[in-house]
């Protein structure tokens, strides 16, 4: 794979054209940021979010019709948000919504750079999600915490929409990440993807047939496309 500079997709949701232009200019100065859309209201912003994979949203709180925070609460899987506002009083309300930073208008460039630094830090924490130290455990980030999972303890991993459940001897752990992400970080000699929704620990197989594998008393389906790789 050729390595492009890492690009984070962002959108600007801002109904004041001058403020939007200033943000666009600031974004253009950062090689890692890629502006995929600008819009002036929440309806258009929703459609941008459905078309593009957006990592960062600059959100003005005073939008026509739907206000910024109300819009944010309705988004299922929101990107990281940097709020832009001319008013101080909103910071508290945003704490529950995982806002990366607040930029007061008019926005000075150095303050923008600081906010982007916070955003990148959050993204890198998410992307470094899975650091493999030795081969006997992995770390997974959950919010600001790193959770250590001993590979030997894992029975199987199950994917449910944008979450995964890791079933271990003691408990079931839930993380927000695609199953493909954790698959990349598991040693392939110990773990096998048997279905778009399941990865199993080979050493924990209790019974197997062409279409079913039993792990820890649970019968899991073998997906058609995974059968071949599983025979190996």
Automatic annotation (TrEMBL):
<feature type="domain" description="HTH LytTR-type">
    <location>
        <begin position="138"/>
        <end position="206"/>
    </location>
</feature>
<keyword id="KW-0597">Phosphoprotein</keyword>
<dbReference type="InterPro" id="IPR046947">
    <property type="entry name" value="LytR-like"/>
</dbReference>
<dbReference type="InterPro" id="IPR001789">
    <property type="entry name" value="Sig_transdc_resp-reg_receiver"/>
</dbReference>
<keyword id="KW-0238">DNA-binding</keyword>
<dbReference type="GO" id="GO:0003677">
    <property type="term" value="F:DNA binding"/>
</dbReference>
<dbReference type="GO" id="GO:0000156">
    <property type="term" value="F:phosphorelay response regulator activity"/>
</dbReference>
<dbReference type="InterPro" id="IPR007492">
    <property type="entry name" value="LytTR_DNA-bd_dom"/>
</dbReference>
<dbReference type="InterPro" id="IPR011006">
    <property type="entry name" value="CheY-like_superfamily"/>
</dbReference>
<feature type="modified residue" description="4-aspartylphosphate">
    <location>
        <position position="60"/>
    </location>
</feature>
<dbReference type="Pfam" id="PF00072">
    <property type="entry name" value="Response_reg"/>
</dbReference>
<protein>
    <submittedName>
        <fullName>DNA-binding response regulator</fullName>
    </submittedName>
</protein>
<feature type="domain" description="Response regulatory">
    <location>
        <begin position="9"/>
        <end position="120"/>
    </location>
</feature>
<dbReference type="Pfam" id="PF04397">
    <property type="entry name" value="LytTR"/>
</dbReference>
């Amino acid at each position: 794979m050729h390595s492009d500079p890492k690009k984070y997709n962002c959108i600007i949701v801002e109904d004041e054209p001058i403020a939007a232009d200033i943000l666009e200019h600031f974004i253009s100065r950062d090689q890692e940021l890629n502006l995929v859309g600008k819009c002036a209201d929440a309806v258009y912003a929703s459609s941008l979010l459905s078309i593009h994979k957006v990592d960062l949203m600059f959100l003005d709180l005073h939008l026509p019709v739907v206000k910024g925070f109300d819009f944010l609460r309705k988004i299922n899987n929101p990107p990281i948000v940097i709020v832009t506002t001319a008013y101080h009083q909103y910071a508290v309300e945003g704490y529950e919504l995982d806002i990366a930073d607040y930029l007061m208008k008019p926005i000075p460039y150095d303050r923008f750079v600081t906010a982007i630094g916070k955003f990148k830090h959050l993204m890198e924490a998410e992307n470094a999600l899975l650091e493999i130290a030795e081969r006997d455990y992995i770390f997974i980030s959950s919010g600001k915490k790193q959770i250590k999972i001993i590979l030997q303890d894992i029975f199987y991993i199950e994917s449910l929409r944008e979450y995964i459940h890791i079933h271990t001897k003691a408990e079931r752990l839930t993380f927000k990440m695609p199953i493909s992400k954790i698959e990349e970080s598991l040693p392939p000699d110990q773990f096998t993807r048997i279905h778009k929704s399941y990865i199993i620990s080979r050493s924990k197989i209790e019974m197997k047939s062409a279409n079913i594998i039993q792990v820890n008393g649970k019968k899991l389906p073998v997906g058609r496309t995974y059968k071949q790789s599983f025979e190996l």
